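User: Sequence recovery, please. Input:
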């Protein structure tokens, strides 16, 4: 432990014996460092905080959610630092004073992009905008003023991007959609005209809508239905023929002289039905009218077949038989027509096998165009509605919480701390140089170190004898050293005071 203490004393003695060298190095390093600190320009930062409201009940009703509004804010924040917007900042602030051409504007924009910050806080409605000015060619007051102007101009552009940008974007979007809708409309007209021409050539043979295969399938389905109805109608007609064969045409009994004739009775029944207000389309009226007509054709309802009267049941069954026969005839005619059309279409398909594929292509093209047209119409209406909502209610509302102010103190560099750091570094450099010189110089501060160096015992050592004159001179040198050391500290303190004074003046 004693050896370590002795070594420490030896090191301190070596440094102390070279204290003037250490002090000179400290002065030199400190002066150079302080000069470098003085050349660092002051940076002035102006900050502003803006509250952005994106909530609107009406917008939620039409599908403009808060997430979409946040995306719009993110878009505005990303475009705020665009070259166009930064050029506005340069030309509408004091930065334009040093601009002489496009090259200077580009240089100012590059510097400005590095010195502005637009950042969202934890609450996405709060946005911080900051601008820094550190131009060494300008005074501190000019830098502070420019920082405030840049921050204020960024707020103005932010508002302009949201208030007028939405209207411009909506107008441009509607114009683009109108062009697309007009183009799709013309394409749809041309496609529909091709479909009409194709239908006139081929598809007009079969009724209905759809492709050729669909129409042919519909025709086959209808023929199957007609076959079923025809079977039922023919069965009904056969049954009616059977009933008619087993029903006598006249009834024996009352003749022309023994009572009213059948014609008079039928006319009386028909007159009674009409008196009750039944129209000519009533089924009973129709049957009675047919019975009257049949009796008239038979000679007025007199005696027939040995003096009998016409049988009303026979006449009714005869009328129903005529109806069933007419139904069978109509179904047969319809079936024949459909079968002829179907055969003609099948023949055309055999002769021209590309008809079906051509129609499918025409229909597919038309449906694609129609789908696009309908979607464009829906998109245009949605954009128009959203644009009106944003114009009326305001999609984004601003409120400046902290307006940008002219900074009174530079944010960088921390000059007092740098000045003090340079002083410490200078002192450390001086001590380091003195220590290094002590290690390099070939002297022996103690007899023990001399013994270790030469490997021989040292008989003794002689202490230095100092006269009174030398003591006085040494005291004077100590005063000079203390003054020089204090002067170094005083210069550092003076520079720190000057820095604070300059801040106050700025």
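Assistant: Recovered sequence (506 residues):
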């Amino acid at each position: 432990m004693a050896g370590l203490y002795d070594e420490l004393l030896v090191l301190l003695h070596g440094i102390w014996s070279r204290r003037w060298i250490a002090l000179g190095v400290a002065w030199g390093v400190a002066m150079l460092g302080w000069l470098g600190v003085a050349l660092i320009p002051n940076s002035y930062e102006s900050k502003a905080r803006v509250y952005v409201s994106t909530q609107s009940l009406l917008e939620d009703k039409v599908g403009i959610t808060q997430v979409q509004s946040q995306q719009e804010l993110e878009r505005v924040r990303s475009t705020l630092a665009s070259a166009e917007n930064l050029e506005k900042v340069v030309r509408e602030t004091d930065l334009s004073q040093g601009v002489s051409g496009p090259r200077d504007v580009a240089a100012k924009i590059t510097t400005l992009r590095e010195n502005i910050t637009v950042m969202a806080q934890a609450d996405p409605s709060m946005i911080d905008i900051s601008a820094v000015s550190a131009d060494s060619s300008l005074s501190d007051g000019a830098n502070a003023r420019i920082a405030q102007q840049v921050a204020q101009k960024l707020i103005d552009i932010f508002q302009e991007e949201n208030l007028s940008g939405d209207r411009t974007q909506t107008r441009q979007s509607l114009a683009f959609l109108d062009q697309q809708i007009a183009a799709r409309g013309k394409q749809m007209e041309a496609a529909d005209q091709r479909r009409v021409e194709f239908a006139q050539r081929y598809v007009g043979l079969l009724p209905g809508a759809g492709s050729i295969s669909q129409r042919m399938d519909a025709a086959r389905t209808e023929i199957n239905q007609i076959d079923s109805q025809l079977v039922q109608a023919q069965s009904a007609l056969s049954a009616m023929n059977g009933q008619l064969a087993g029903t006598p045409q006249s009834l024996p009994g009352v003749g022309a002289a023994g009572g009213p004739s059948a014609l008079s009775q039928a006319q009386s029944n028909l007159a009674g039905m009409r008196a009750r207000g039944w129209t000519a389309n009533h089924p009973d009226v129709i049957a009675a009218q047919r019975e009257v007509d049949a009796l008239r054709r038979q000679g007025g309802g007199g005696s027939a077949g040995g003096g009998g009267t016409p049988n009303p049941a026979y006449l009714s069954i005869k009328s129903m038989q005529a109806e069933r026969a007419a139904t069978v005839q109509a179904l047969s005619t319809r079936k024949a027509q459909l079968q002829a059309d179907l055969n003609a279409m099948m023949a055309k398909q055999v002769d021209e096998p590309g008809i079906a594929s051509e129609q499918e292509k025409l229909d597919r093209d038309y449906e694609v165009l129609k789908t696009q047209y309908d979607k464009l119409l829906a998109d245009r209406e949605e954009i128009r509605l959203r644009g009106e909502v944003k114009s009326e209610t305001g999609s984004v509302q601003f409120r400046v919480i902290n307006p940008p102010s002219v900074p009174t103190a530079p944010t960088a560099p921390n000059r007092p701390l740098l000045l003090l750091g340079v002083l410490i570094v200078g002192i450390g450099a001086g001590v380091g140089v003195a220590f290094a010189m002590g290690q390099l110089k070939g002297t022996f501060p103690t007899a023990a170190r001399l013994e270790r160096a030469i490997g021989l015992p040292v008989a003794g050592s002689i202490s230095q004898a100092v006269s009174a004159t030398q003591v006085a001179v040494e005291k004077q040198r100590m005063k000079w050293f203390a003054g020089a050391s204090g002067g170094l500290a005083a210069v550092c303190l003076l520079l720190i005071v000057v820095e604070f004074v300059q801040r106050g003046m700025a």
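The chain has 16 helices and six strands.
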